[in-house]
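Possible regression after last week's pipeline update?

I re-ran a chain I had predicted before the update to compare outputs. Posting the input and the new output here so someone can diff against the archived version. Not blocking, just want to make sure nothing changed silently.
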Amino acid sequence: MKTLWNKYKQNKFAHGIFLLIYIGVTSLSLFMAQRSVTAFLLLLSSLLLLYFTNFKNLTKWLIAGIVLVFLLPFTASNGDAYQSYMEVATLVGIYISMALGLNIVVGMAGLLDLGFVAFFAVGAYTYGIFATAQASKFMPFGTFPLSGESFWIFILIGCLVAALFGVLLGIPVLRVKGDYLAIVTLGFGEIIRIIFNNLDRPINITNGAMGIPSVTPPRLFGIDFLFPSQFYYIVLAILLFTIFTVRRFEYSKIGRSWKAVRENEIAAQAMGVPLVRTKLMAFAIGASFSGMMGVVFAAKQAFVDPTSFTLLESITILVMVLLGGMGSVPGVVLGAAVMTILNLQVLTEVSNWLNQLSLSGVISIPDALSPAKMQRLIFGLLLISFALYRPKGLLPAKNRVYDEKALQEGSGQASLGIAPELQQNENLKAKEV
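New output (post-update):
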């Protein structure tokens, strides 16, 4: 049996056949049973199966693109649950992008941040203020609200403003680390929320606790984006950009600097790593992804208020990083997806099912164990189980191991005057373990 399994793992054709059958069956199940949460989750899990195949990265990206861009929206669009499915998928993409940003700060640079949701709030309010009549209350010039076409520009503006706030956070915390860093960042997140909650006087900028309603929806080619199925594609595009950027940073010079700072700041500084610039870049780049998704969140919800940016949200995003695997991009993607789907769909369905059984008299549930309270209980027990049995995360980070012989040959060719880029492309062989 073990021999057959090893042969299967090395056979790309067998992987392709199994994956094709699996995707076909789950897609058909979702198309036929529109209210089946199980079919929806099984189709999404095909992406996890795809990750473990031996296909080339380009092939994996193409198959994942087909599933996410065409199969998932099409198979879910044949019933009343279409928009609810797309709502879940959209929120999954938003949280994955934020978790990847926090992974740069916590997982790669080793800087514990408990106020990360503040950058999400900055992006949301940046668009919410100018996409409503709120800006006219303190701006002496201009016509507000801005049109829906401005949304696409505000994605970039939200990115830059959040990066600026990331630098402002990074400057005072350069001299602290560990528990003290966590306290400072926690305070920063609460300060931002409280400022937005009280910035309605003496000049009304954020409308305080009442929030900012009627945010102008995005518009493209005369089409207003009003439904989750439309925002799904916006989130998907930003998410692909985020994954591509984070992966490029991971093995770049700055990515190696982040990891060096994470392991030992003194040793990193002794090796010539600039601590100030490295930490500030981690805060700025991580915050920028959260700022972009904040703009999308404000437009999707059409309402912004401080209650959406509490400490619990920051802790939830941090748990996504820890659950998936600190420093692991695939792990963080999986951790954020699992957390979001558990919260929004799986545990909600379980609670509704238990509530129906209680109302029908099949079982008797005490008030202290009502379905609403059991949802949080089950969620907490699952997190404890993962922490006990998968302490490094669902998909732990992998380090590249280089072929020593190839490196020695490369250094020999470098001494003969061969360009470093050519010697790296021809002689450097790396793999992940």
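Follow-up from reviewer: compared with the archived run. The chain has 17 helices and six strands. Marking as no regression found.
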